Amino acid sequence: MSEQLTFTDVEANICTIAGMIEEDKLYFVQMAGAPLMAVLLAKYMSAPGVGYVVEEGAVAPSPSFPLPRMMVGASRSHYRAVGWYGMNIVDSHAALGFMDYGLLACLQIDKFGNFNSTFIGGTYEQPERRFGGAGGATEIASQCWRTLLMTKLQSRKFVNKVDFVSSPGYLDGTPGARERAGLPANTGPYKVITQEAVFDFHEETHQMRLIAMMPWVTEEEVLSKMEFEPLIADKVERMTLPTEEQLTIIRTEIDPGGLTVSRGEWFTIDRDTDKRVT
Amino acid sequence: MSEQLTFTDVEANICTIAGMIEEDKLYFVQMAGAPLMAVLLAKYMSAPGVGYVVEEGAVAPSPSFPLPRMMVGASRSHYRAVGWYGMNIVDSHAALGFMDYGLLACLQIDKFGNFNSTFIGGTYEQPERRFGGAGGATEIASQCWRTLLMTKLQSRKFVNKVDFVSSPGYLDGTPGARERAGLPANTGPYKVITQEAVFDFHEETHQMRLIAMMPWVTEEEVLSKMEFEPLIADKVERMTLPTEEQLTIIRTEIDPGGLTVSRGEWFTIDRDTDKRVT
Amino acid sequence: MDVLASGIGEFRKPDPDGYREYVRTHKERRLVSKVMSEHDAISRFVEDGDYLAYDQNVAVRGPTSLFREIIRQRKKDLWIAAKFTWSDASLLVAGGCVSKIDVGWMATGRLINEAIRKGELKLIDWTNGALAYRHLAGSLGVSFLPMRYLVGTDTFTQSGAKVIEDPFTSQPICLVPALYPDVAIIHVQQCDIYGDARVLGAGVAPMEIAMSSKKLIISTEEIIDHEAIRRQPQRTTIPYYFVDAVVVAPFGCYPGSTPGLYGADIEHWMQFGAAEMQGKTDEYLENWVFSVASHEEMLDKRVGAAKLLKLRQAETVREGYYE
Amino acid sequence: MDVLASGIGEFRKPDPDGYREYVRTHKERRLVSKVMSEHDAISRFVEDGDYLAYDQNVAVRGPTSLFREIIRQRKKDLWIAAKFTWSDASLLVAGGCVSKIDVGWMATGRLINEAIRKGELKLIDWTNGALAYRHLAGSLGVSFLPMRYLVGTDTFTQSGAKVIEDPFTSQPICLVPALYPDVAIIHVQQCDIYGDARVLGAGVAPMEIAMSSKKLIISTEEIIDHEAIRRQPQRTTIPYYFVDAVVVAPFGCYPGSTPGLYGADIEHWMQFGAAEMQGKTDEYLENWVFSVASHEEMLDKRVGAAKLLKLRQAETVREGYYE
Question: What CATH number is attached to the domain comprising C209?
């Protein structure tokens, strides 16, 4: 029997995003959970000098690992920052154009990258399931130059129409739609990262476009997990699998309690063939 | 020969204002010079607990005496404040209505308490003498509940029309003029203090009104030192002379260099008669 | 005024002059002790129907001892701002205290969903940043502030924001109305008896909330000497004249954490979560709120010294806070 | 947009998106050393025609070593914001560097009056607070802010402010345009090599100016270790990514004072005042600026060790700054 690699969808997302982190850029990272873990994994492994801010005003922290289980705003997550401010200050840093990338999770997304974190089903007044709200995602997705969005590849998440536009993507997709609405120029969603596929947005039509897939999935499989049909890049790249080292660091240093990464769908991959076993 | 008391016009102003300081009120005090000295004299002698803020953001300092010669923003003038902030913060405290009194000096004033600290003579573009500008006086005179204005009783200062309205009094004097302009409700100049006379403003007409004079001057003398004719209160009070103790504290603790208080007009008063000798 | 678009959300009309009048007649300018019990602070300064603001980083440095006292006193019909919060909104909803929530982010579950369904609770959506910014507007004494986001979304539509044509750039710009809460509760590490308060560490908007709220209750881990405040003026987050009450509350944000002092009691949160899922929050409240007379009694009889020591030990960082 | 009134003063049209584009392409995000000489900092980052901002409390903590370097390099046509300043504007006018001044408050005398008379200098009146607030607007990334004063005055008329009908209260409200300076110079007590800077003590608007200026030069009394910054993050006034140059300048605001370190040299100010009154500022500049190659040389050859020691001794307060 050949060697196998086992990980969750969240772990896959964290590893994929960690591989995208550039050390000479600044990141505005949502609260906690997978987006923060992705930047921390990069900081631990490949981009130790990367700077990021969090909503509650810690600028460029150097968190002490292993991280605490409830880490938002806690001392170990703000450890050795270069500055401790408040939300209005760091939101202003983003308004001023200092934040190259926003890093966010979302519940539902449409083909123009508009996304929902408010409610699913029913009406605004009587929702079937009410969620936490836009949080800091709207200011991040509006004011950072590029936004990296993380979610799961499922048809109920990639939908024709989101139940509620909590935060803006390219709105109706027309050229200049964000600027006409009053948003800062030349901003918008940049990539959407899932456990099995990565998307970007077409430069002119602003439609979501499949650009990379995990080795074990086909285009058809990806499309079957989406309500709308994305554009397909001329050449769809193969995504890199999480490494043993990445997974070990996530499980021992980044989320030792497993509160975030142990939930969701598990993947077991045969390392010789890169095919999914279970 | 009877005993004599000698002081300058600035010293007289400082002592008169010091006597008005209420310990349960908050003061917003201009930069430096006589207004600040007045509140410090009160703090030294009669109202040790009185709180005041200065433009550069020191809140409720307890300055260490004797004060330095160039004291604005210097360490001894901010000593043992309860907070060190910046200008936008303390201006906001005033905007929020926390500052009961503003304490200011001015170059020129009209009968509605509009005053000038910008230029005298000529035009705005080609002034005869250009002065420092509105400074912080406009925010103080607009946002504190009541403004105490300090100047010298001279016809070139109490004028029919100021060369430039740097900061607002009651504007054209009509009811609600300040509110119509956009200023916070129920604010405005409260008293004008000079070396020989004190004025307030009529509740309805908002015209300046003589309410107190030094013992050695007559109404005619006061009016001869004003270009416009103020209202006269039914009963014009007699002002209290500076005391020896006040003058000693000013000269040794408040302005030991004499930069502010030794300039201007000198008064020598016969203490038996309260008449001016020279 | 050309208003290009307006959200439909309900909001308190900002009234800077009304706030000023309140301040003029109600706020104490002298240095007088404001130390009082949590009971007195909540009963004197929180009224049914008040707009209540608070500050915390999700579960960190939240004024939870005061939340419990609000529930204990069965305050009603509060309108709260839940920005970057945790299960506080659910807790207050469980206590029957809340009828409206301005939402930035909060943990949601059965309690919130059921209260909406029954028509007992109305949510008005904003974002974390928009609510913090509305407090900033209030702290500046104005009625609105312009900002570069919120537009283009349904969040905007459900909020009370407006879009106007910017008179300086001619571009569309979003305006949010200032938030002037009736009362705010803020937990801090250190405070003197007059209310000069220090928030140690990053915080969402403690100063903005303190400045924009008519009434302000501070709960503090410890009282420090007034002279200590004056020796380090730059560390004072909130000066005394904004503060109406100072409540001594060690472990005041239990089961949350206070940076530099103690960690969070995660088991407690799970217990609350389980109670919520099982519809047993009445039991939870009986145990943690109603059956104890005070925060002190809760710590003594429900939490216990061993747990408190463990939580102290779980906080390993003092650097930047106390060092 | 119903604009009820507009000032006639010239102002740079606020361009938040232009600022953002500059930041995107020009500002360094990495932690790299920005330490350089005053010569290099001024020659690289101050251009003729720039809008130059700075921060000080009248004569306290002003970046005077950098003012002298600007004169030494004969920069021209600067537009400066003189809010709550001292004779800096006169000094720069004497050096022929300035063509426009946004006035809050500054010391005026023969130099300013003559330059106006000759048509070489244009003043545009605001107030200290209005200029600090315009920096605040810039620091928030917006194009204007509403405020409760300036209206009703000739200062308003000569400024670039506007009055609109407030869309939330229907009352008239004053709007001031955001100020985004091309370059700012700020003197601090402590800074690391990356630009993480600490202003110790009260300051007019150092953070707002730092955030709203495209280019930022910090002069610092001393370089401190980056790890020292990280050990006390709450003391950092300006984080590294706003900063383009760090200039080591002990006694950098001589003849002004730096709180906690040294007092002001009042005799020097009087010497400048006398030179101005006698029309001898060329001699003054030759002696204090042109005949010395650097701030260091000026301290050594013109001020001297004895005077520096005396100024150190004159500063008796360290509490709140270094203790």
Answer: 3.40.1080.10
pLDDT of residue B66: 85
D152 contacts: CB under 8 Å, gap ≥ 6:
B142, B165, B168, B171, B177, B178, B181, B182, B183
**Mean pLDDT, contiguous 10-residue spans, chain C (323 residues):** 91 98 98 98 98 95 98 98 94 98 96 97 98 98 98 98 96 97 98 98 97 98 98 98 98 97 94 96 98 98 98 95 93
Tell me the residue type at C86: W
Reported as a single tens digit per residue, the pLDDT across D231-243 is: 999 999 999 999 9
The answer to whether the CB of D51 falls within 8 A of the CB of D79 is yes
Residue ranges in chain D assigned as alpha helix (H): 16-26, 38-45, 64-72, 88-94, 110-117, 128-139, 154-158, 206-212, 226-231, 266-277, 281-285, 295-298, 305-314
Question: A232: how many CB neighbours lie within 10 A of its CB?
Answer: 14
pLDDT (0 to 100) of residue B243: 95
The sign of the dihedral angle between the CA atoms of A172, A174, A175, A177 is negative
Chain A residues 176-235 within an 8 A CB cutoff of chain C: 177-184
Q: How many CB pairs under 8 A join B and C?
A: 83
Give the residue on C whose Cα is nearest the Cα of A58.
C202
Q: Count of alpha carbons within 13 Å of C147, Cβ hemisphere only?
A: 32
Summarised one tens digit per residue, pLDDT across range C239-252 is 999 999 999 999 99
State the best of B25, B92, B186 to mutate against chain C, taking most chain C CBs within 10 Å. B92
Residue-level pLDDT at C1: 58
Domain presence at residue D319: no
Of D168, D200, D323, the CB nearest to C13: D168
Most A CBs within 10 Å, among C4, C154, C266, C267, to test the A interface = C154
Whether the pTM exceeds 0.95: the reply is yes
Q: Is residue C243 part of a domain?
A: yes
pLDDT digits (tens, 9 = 90+) for D219-235: 999 999 999 999 999 99
Q: Do B184 and C17 touch (CB under 8 A)?
A: yes
**pLDDT value, residue B1:** 56
Residues in chain A predicted with pLDDT less than 70, given as ranges, are 1
Which residue numbers of D have CB closer than 8 Å to A's CBs?
A: 16-17, 19-24, 27, 29-31, 139-142, 196, 211-212, 227, 229-231, 233-234, 236, 239-242
The domain made up of A4-276 is a member of CATH 3.40.1080.10: yes
* Confidence band for B30, pLDDT divided at 50, 70 and 90: confident
| B55 Cβ neighbours under 8 A, 6+ residues apart | B30, B31, B87, B90, B91, B135, B136, D84, D128, D129, D204
Chains in touch with D (3+ beta-carbon pairs under 8 Å) read A, B, C
Is residue B73 over pLDDT 80?
no
In chain D, what residues touch B127 (CB-CB under 8 Å)?
Answer: 113, 116
What is the total count of domains within chain D?
Answer: 1
Nearest to D148 among B95, B133, B136 (CB): B95
- pLDDT value for D1: 58
Q: Which two tokens stand for residue D285?
A: 């500049």
Q: How far is B112 from chain D (nearest CA, A)?
A: 13
The 10s digit of each residue's pLDDT in D77-125 is 999 999 999 999 999 999 999 999 999 999 999 999 999 999 999 999 9
B251/C contact by beta carbon, under 8 A: no
Domain ranges within chain A, ordered by starting residue: 4-276
**Does A78 reach chain C within 8 Å, measured CB to CB?**
yes
Would an 8 Å CB–CB cutoff place A138 in contact with chain C? yes
Neighbours of chain A (3+ CB pairs under 8 A): C, D
Tell me whether residue C320 is in a domain: no
Is C321 among the domain residues? no
State the Cα–Cα distance between residues C274 and C23, nearest whole angstrom: 44
Quote the domain boundaries for residue C255: 3-314
- Helix (H) or strand (E) run with residue B220 in it: helix B219-224
